Each structure stands twice: as C-alpha cells, then as structure tokens.
C-alpha cells in the first residue's frame, strides 16, 4: 500500500533569486569567485566559507550560491570539494608525499576533519582515499 503519492522524477528546484540575478552580474561574479577560490587556492582554507567570500566580494551568499549553481551546476560546498579532491588525488599518488597520513592529506587540501574528507573523496571517485592511493601509487 502506497502511503504517499509523491513523484520526484520531473521535479527541479528552481530558487526564485536565480532569476533575479542578471547575466552580466553572473558573469562578473563568476570571474571573481574563480579568481579567489581557484587561482588563490582559498579552497584549501578550512575557515574560508561562502559567507567570507560574499563579504570579500561585497555581495551576499545567495548570489554566490546562485552563480556557482548556474555556472557549475553544483552547490558551493560541492564545487569547493571538487578542487580539494583533485589536490588530494595528486598528493596520494605523488612519491614525495607517500608517507603522509590520511589526516595530513585531509588537512592539507582543506577539509576540517577526516570523515568529511572520506565522504567527499568517495562521492567524487567511487573509492576511499586509501584504495585510490593503493591503486594509483607508482611502485
């Protein structure tokens, strides 16, 4: 017996504020966000949040969220974690860093704890960091 008649197949969340932000502002903010988060590697800073980014850009977190969602099709945290995981993959396979513990790798790439590192790593790669290291290390 079906208790609820809910169909999420065609459901797409569309926040109202996304339609209020002009394409020009989206483009301008995208360039600034990428410059700060990617080029300046702020994704490695555990304390650097969307709120701090918004303050630095003199805007609000809703606009930051909208721009990241529109331009990269993911939320802010997922977008930042994508860069962290790419760095972690490089560290895990680099011979110079083979003695690093997982907690150290997690810390170096910007995660605040090992659990969130493992969860994000698995989400993006489909394997644990340890398995990735074992499968991809130069022998």
From TrEMBL:
Family annotation (Gene3D superfamilies): Homeodomain-like (1.10.10.60)
InterPro entries: Homeodomain-like_sf, HTH_AraC
Domain HTH araC/xylS-type: residue ranges: 31-135
GO molecular function, one term: DNA-binding transcription factor activity
The keyword Transcription regulation appears for this protein: yes
UniProt keyword list: DNA-binding, Transcription, Transcription regulation
Tree of life domain: Bacteria
Coiled coil: none
Stored PANTHER family: ARAC-FAMILY TRANSCRIPTIONAL REGULATOR
Protein name as catalogued: AraC family transcriptional regulator
Organism per entry: Xylanibacter rarus
Phylogenetic placement of the source organism: Bacteria, Pseudomonadati, Bacteroidota, Bacteroidia, Bacteroidales
């Amino acid at each position: 017996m079906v208790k609820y008649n809910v169909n999420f197949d065609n459901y797409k969340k569309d926040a109202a504020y996304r339609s209020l932000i002009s394409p020009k502002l989206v483009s301008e903010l995208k360039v600034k966000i990428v410059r700060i988060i990617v080029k300046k590697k702020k994704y490695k800073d555990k304390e650097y949040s969307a709120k701090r980014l918004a303050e630095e850009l003199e805007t609000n977190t809703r606009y930051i969220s909208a721009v990241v969602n529109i331009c990269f099709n993911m939320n802010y945290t997922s977008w930042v974690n994508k860069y962290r995981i790419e760095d972690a993959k490089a560290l895990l396979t680099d011979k110079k860093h083979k003695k690093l513990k997982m907690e150290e790798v997690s810390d170096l790439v910007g995660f605040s704890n090992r659990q969130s590192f493992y969860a994000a790593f698995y989400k993006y790669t489909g394997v644990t960091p340890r398995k990735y290291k074992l499968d991809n290390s130069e022998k």
